[in-house]
Amino acid sequence: MTSDTRTGERTALRTATKAARVETPIALTRRARRINRELAELYPDARCELVYRTPLELLVATVLSAKCTDQRVNLVTPELFATYPDARAYAEADRAELENIIRSTGFFRAKADALLGIGAALFERFDSEVPRRLEHLLTLPGVGRKTANVVLGNAFGIPGITVDTHVGRLARRLGWTQEDDPVRVESALAALLERKEWTPVSHRLIFHGRRACFARRPACGACQIRQSCPSNGIGEQDPEIAQGMIDRVVPGDVSGR
Ligand code: SF4
Predict the structure, then answer these.
(1) Which residue numbers are catalytic?
(2) What is the per-residue pLDDT across 53-79, written as a single tens digit (0 to 9) for each?
């Protein structure tokens, strides 16, 4: 992160904090829900961009998506899923072979550790099924709240807020919270939004973060929710240049969780 980026981020947070100070809790809730509705119109197809067919495949793909694009993960998983069809197959996997398949997703040794451990834990403790409860998912190696909420929300339809880098950044820029800690961000968003919105709002914020509200220089001048955003103006303000930034985004070729 450059010093310009840090300065911009600090300005955004100051602006959002100032806005939050003069906004009553009810007004904040109304604004958050209005932004969520605007994002729903803007991204009607917002969804998990990982390709999977089963809860286990989603769990594995989500582990691989750490510090990696979803597009890259989706290139790797067909071979991975064909080679390891169930929890036992991961538990008994040959480490070198597993590492070789997932190498291009980065941090492949740590990810292989997680997949071997998850396979063993599911096989030994959960009858080879991915558990449907947060507290059980959190006992799996390499699985934190972010991964657990992705699985709950998308594989089981159990509402969960996924606080990845995009959701955290946007929640702060939008003035929904000033917290940095992902668990606190999750709590703040859970209090602002209806439970049924928890999973879809996570997708919408991630879509907006990947397509317009970029980490380094957000495309404020062409942002569809700028009227409701207290950080409007921290990024590119020229509408044409900002629209060009948005148009350059290649679907799927965006940073992962
Ligand atoms: S891109 Fe939109 S949401 Fe992001 S800071 Fe700018 S106005 Fe706000």
Answers:
(1) 146, 164
(2) 999 999 999 999 999 999 999 999 999
Q: Where are the domains of the chain?
A: 3-42+161-246, 55-155
Q: Which ligand 1 atom sits nearest the alpha carbon of residue 12?
A: 5
Give the closest residue to 59 by CA, choosing from 136, 155, 125, 179: 155
256 falls in which pLDDT band (50, 70, 90)?
very low
Please tell us whether the domain made up of 3-42+161-246 is placed in CATH 1.10.1670.10.
Answer: yes
In sequence order, the 6+-apart residues with CB closer than 8 A to the CB of 130 are 55, 56, 59, 122, 137, 151, 155
The response to whether residue 219 sits with its C-beta less than 6 Å from ligand 1 reads yes
pLDDT of residue 164: 93
Which ligand 1 atom sits nearest the alpha carbon of residue 224? 2
Looking at domain 55-155, which of 1.10.10.10, 1.10.340.30, 3.30.70.580, 3.40.50.1820 is its CATH number? 1.10.340.30
pLDDT for residue 4: 47
**How much distance in Å is there from the Cα of 46 to the middle of ligand 1?**
18
Specify the pLDDT at position 22. 79
